[in-house]
Hints:
This protein is of the alpha/beta class.
Amino acid sequence: MKLRILFYTAIEGELGSLSNAVRSVHREYGPLVEVLAYAKRDLTGPEKQAELLDTVPCCHLVILHLMGGPDSLPSFDRVTALAREQAIPLAVLPSAGDDTRALLGLSNLSEEDYRLVRLYVCYGGEENLKNLLIWSINRYLKKFYPVPEPKPLPWEGLYYPGCQSEAQAAALLEEKLKEGKPVVGILFYQSYRVTGNTGFVDELINQIENQGGVALPVFLYATRNDELGSRGIAWVVENYFSRQGRPLVDVVVNTLMFAQTMATPTFSRVEEKDLYLRLGVPLIKAIISVASRSEWENSQQGLGPLDVVMSVALPEFDGDLITVPVATREELERDPLTGAAPIKYVPVAERMQKVASLALRWARLRRKPNREKKVAIILHNYPPRNDRIGNAFGLDTPASVHRLLLAMREAGYQVEDLPPDGTALMEKILAGLTNERGWLEPRELERRAVARVEKGTYREWFSAFPENSQEHLERDWGPPPGEVFYYGDHLLVPGIFLGNVFLGVQPPRGFLEDPSKIYHSPDLSPPHHYLAYYRWLRDVFQADIVFHIGKHGSLEWLPGKGVGLSAACFPDLAINDLPHVYPYIVNNPGEGTQAKRRSHACIIDHLVPVMTRAGSYDELAEIEVILKEYNEAKMMDASRLPSLHNLIWEKVALTHLDRDLKITREAAEKDWEDFLEHLHSYLHEIKDTLIRDGLHILGQPPAGEALVEMLLALTRLPNGPVPSLREQVAGIKGFNYEALLSNPGYFDPDRGRTYGEMLDEIDNLARRLLEAFVNGGYTVDEAPFIVQKLLGKQNEEICRVLEYAVNTLVPALAATKQELDNCLNALAGGFVPPGPSGAPTRGMADILPTGRNFYSVDPQAVPSRAAWQVGCSLADALLERYRQEKGTYPGSVGIVVWATSNMRTGGDDIAQALYLMGVRPVWDEKSGRIKGLAVIPLEELGRPRIDVTIRASGMFRDAFLNVIHLIDQAVEMVANLDEPEDLNFVAAHVRQEVAEKVAQGINPEQAREEALWRIFSDPPGCYGAGVSNLITARNWRDEKDLGEVYVTWGGYAYSRRSFGKDARPAFRQRLALVEATVKNEDTREIDMYDSDDFYSYHGGMVAAVKAIKGEPPMSFSGDSSDPARVRVRTLDEETRHIFRARVLNPKWIESMKRHGYKGAGDLSHLVEVAFGWDATAGVLEDWLYEALAHKYALDPSMQDWFKEVNPWALQNIVEHLLEAIERGMWQAAPEMNEALRELYLEIEGELEARTE
Length: 1252
C-alpha cells in the first residue's frame, strides 16, 4: 500500500524542500508515499479547485498550510468539510499571525499528532519535511522506521554566503566591520535560508561590497512566537543592528513583506511601534516581487495588486522608502513526483545595483560632515512662468525654504549668501535664469544660467540610457540635445548657488513647449533638457541629497511603469539613485504616495494652513444686518417692514443672490417669509464654511489667535470617541444642534432669533472656551470652572473635548516644528518616522503631529465600512438632486475618481459607485478587508440600478487596481441579472451594446467584454486628463477640442481582463449615455478652485459629454466634509459657494497677501483655474468675472501690492480675464474691456523694463 498525502501550501517557497524530501524518502524507503502538492497559485480557476476537491477522497492525510487564515485557500470550507465527512485525517496549519488554537479546532487529528505535523511543517526545511513523511508512513501504514522529533532550525541569525554556521558568519562580518566602511543591514526571511532561496541576498551583498560598503545580512522569522522560539523583528533589530544602544548599521535594506512594526487597519501583527525610530537609520524597501521577470518587464503597470499590498502599501506603514523590484519569482520545472512547480527568487541585477547604490548614498549621509554635503533644493514651477515659481499647495514656499536654509546653516551646512528673508530669496532667484524665457534674448539667457551642460556631455549621458528610452525621447524631441533650453551649444541650468546648496527650478515638463503634442501624446517623454538637468545635479553638482518642496512637481508623473519602475522609466532615469526628500501637505496622501512609489521619496508631511470660519463681509454682511432688522421689526415695529422688504430685494438683486437661489422677485413675493428663510440659510451656510487663513510655513506651529482658530476647526466635528465641541455647547444651551444646522434661516419666535444666530452664539462660546486655555493661562484642570463660568453649568463631555484639545491637540500642533527637525534628520541620514495622512479637520485630528513620512491605506480594505455609509448617503443625495431637477432617475452617471480622496476617506467614491449599481461589499469580519460582493435586491434598493462610467486618475489605477477589479466584478454581476430594463440600466445598456456589436460582426464574447467596460483612465504609465494642458497652452477652439483631448487621454479601459486597452470609441459611447456627472470633495481644506486637475478631470468630462451628445449633463459636486451631513450641489452652485465663501472674501484675500510673492502666485492660479472651469463647464456668470476683475485686478491697492511682490501674477490674471472676453465666455462692458487692456499694457511695459 502506498500512502497518499495531499499537501496544500500558501507558502510556495517550501515546495522545493518538499520535492527534495519526497525524493530522499523514495531513495531510502522506496515509493511508500505519494505527495500531491498544490500551491495557492495553482487554484486560481474553478477547474483546478474542482480537481483539488476530487483529490481529497483519494488521500490518507490532508495537510493545509495556510497564510492569513482560511481565506488563503480557495474553497477552504468545502475541502475541510469533505475531509471530515470522509474521516480523512486533516491538519490545518498556521503561519505567522494565524490563530493556532482555532485552526486546531478545524482539524481532526489528536492534539499530539497535530503538534507533530505542525512543528515538522512550521520548522520547515528538507530534513523536517522528510521526517514528516516518515512519521506519516509510520502513523498511517503502521511502519516503525526511526524518525526524529521535529528539529527547530535557527529562527534568526547572521548570514554570509559560503559560511556553514552563524558563528563563522559572525566572525567574518566582525572583521568586515573593522574596515570603517558604510554598513548596510539586510533583513530577509528565515524561510529563504531554510529553502536555500538566497541567491538574491547573495547578489545584494555582492552589489553593496562592490560599491564600497559592508553588508550585514540577518535572516529572521518576523513574528515573535515563544512556543516556536522565534524572537521576532524587534529583538533581531536591537541585537544585530545596534550595539550598546548605538546603531551598528548606517541604513537597512528590508526585503520583508507586510508591515512589521505597526498595526495597520487590517493587519494585526504588531511589534514595538518605535522599533525603527530607536534604531534611527533609513529603511529602504527592496521589493521581492511575486511576479516573474518577464511578467514584470512586460507589464506596463509594473507590480500587480498583490505586490502593491504586500511590498508597497503595507511596508509604508513602517516608514520604508519604496524602491524597485530587486528579485522576481521564477517558477521552476514542475516536479513529476509532487505535481508542483517549486519557485526561486532570482535577482534583477541592474535594479539590485540601483538599490544598493541608493542605500549607500543614504548611509554616507550619516558619515559625511555637514559642511561637505551638497544639497539640491528644487522648486516646482507649473506652468513654467515667473508668477508660479515654488508652487506648492497650502505652503509659503519662499518662507519655508528660507527657514530650512537657516536651520541648515545653524546645523553646520555650508549655506552662503543667504538673503534675509523669503521675499529677498525669490528676488535673487528671479534675477537669475528661470523657466520663463520670453522676455530675454538668448545671450542674456546664457549669461543668467547658473551652469551649462555641454552638448557632448549630454550625448554621452543619453547614450547610456536604455534603448527604448532613447527611442521614446528621439520620437518626441528629436536627436539629443533637442531644442528646449538649448542655446549656444549648451543646455542651460536655471537656479542659484548658495554655497554648497543649489536652489533650482524644476525644468519644464514639455507639453507647453510643444502644445500640438497634447492632442495625441499623453505619454510624452520629458525633454532632453529635463533629464540633463537631473543628471547634472547628480554627476556635475554632485548632490548628496535632493529636496522637492511641496505638492507637487512633475518628476513622479513622468511616463513609465506605475509602481516597481525599471531603468527605462523616466522618473527613475531622472532621480536615479539620489536620496530624495519631499515636504508634502498631510492631506494629500494620493499624490504624495505617487512620489514615494515612483521616486523613492521620503515624505515629510506638513500641516494644512490654519482653517477659519469664512464669516460675513461687504454686501453679504449688510444683508444679514437688514434681515436681523426685519425680524426685529416683525416683533416691535411693523411699519418698517415695507421699506425693509424692498431694501432686502434690492440688495439681493444687486449681489446676484437671486441667481444663487434661482428665484425671481415674483416667486419670492408669493411666499416672502419662506424666501427670507432660504436666504438667511444660504448666507449662514457661506458664513459657516471653513476656509484657509493664509498659507503654512514649514516647521512653524500656529500660535495665538491662529491656534484658537485651528483648534475650533479641529474640534468642530467628532474625532473618534471625542465629541464635537460645537454640538456639546449647543446641547448645554438647550439647542437642537441638528435642527440648527439643517435650517439656519428659521426664525424661532420664542427665542427671537434665527437658528443661524444661535449657531453664531455657539461658535463664539466654543471660541471663548478655547481662548481661556490658549490665551488666558488656564490649565485643563480648571476646565470645569471655565465651563461653569462661560456656560452657566457643568458638562463632562465639554470638559472631555477641552481636555483633548489642551492635552492632545495643542502639543500635536506645537510639534509642527518637527517638520524642520525631520528635514535636518533626513539630511543627516536619519530615520523619518511614519505617520497617518488625511484631512485633520474632517474628524481626523489624530493624524497630527506632522513632520512624518506619511502612509495611506490598505487597498484591500477599500471601501471601508465607514466609507460605505458615506458613499450610500452621497448616492442618495445625488439621485435626489437629479430627481428634483429632472423628475426621473439618471440612466447613467459619470464619476471622477481620484486616489487621494479615496485614501483620505477609505473609499467614499467607490462605495457611491457600487451603491448606485445596487451592490454592496462583503467584509471579512476580522481584518476589514473586502472578501466579496453581494447584489442588493431591488425591493431593498427601492429604485433602479444606475449605470456608472468611471474616469479614474492614473494614480488611482496604480494604487487601487484591486478596486478596479472589484467594480468590474460588480458591473458584471448586475449586468447578468434578469431584471426589467427600466429597473436595471446597467443590464439594459450592456444588452443593447452587445446586440449592436454582434450586428457589426464582432464575436459575442468580445462584444460582451467591451460592453461591460465601465472604468476608464490614462494609457498605462501616463497621468492627467490633458484638458488643463490644452487650456493653459491656449491651443483650443471650443468644447469639441476639449472633449477630444479628454477622450484621447482617458479612453483606456481597465477591468479584470483588460489593462489599459485602447477603448476610445467605447469611452465615447459611455459618455454619450451619461446624464449626470459627479466628483465628490471630502474636505474644505481644498476645493475645486485650488487646482487645474479639478476642471481637467470633471470639467473635461462635462465638455466631452456636451461635445458628444450636443447638450451638457447635469453636473454635481458631492460634499462630505462633514461625513454625517453630506450635501450635493450642482457645479454652478458649488462655484458660487466657493466664490462667496473664499474667492471674493476679503478675509481670505488679506490672509494671502501676508505671504507676498507666493500669495500673489496662488491668487493668479485661482483666476486661471476659474477660467478653466468656465471653459469646460460654463459655470462662471458674467458678474463673477466682473467681481474677479474688480477684486483682483482693478482695485488700486491690489495693483500696488501685486506690482511690489509679484507683477507676473497680475499680468496672468489680466491676461486670463481678457482671454475670457475674447473667447466670448464673458460679455464684459466695453469700459471694463478697455480698463483691462490698458492695465495689461501697463504691466507688460513694467515687466519689459525689469529685464533691461
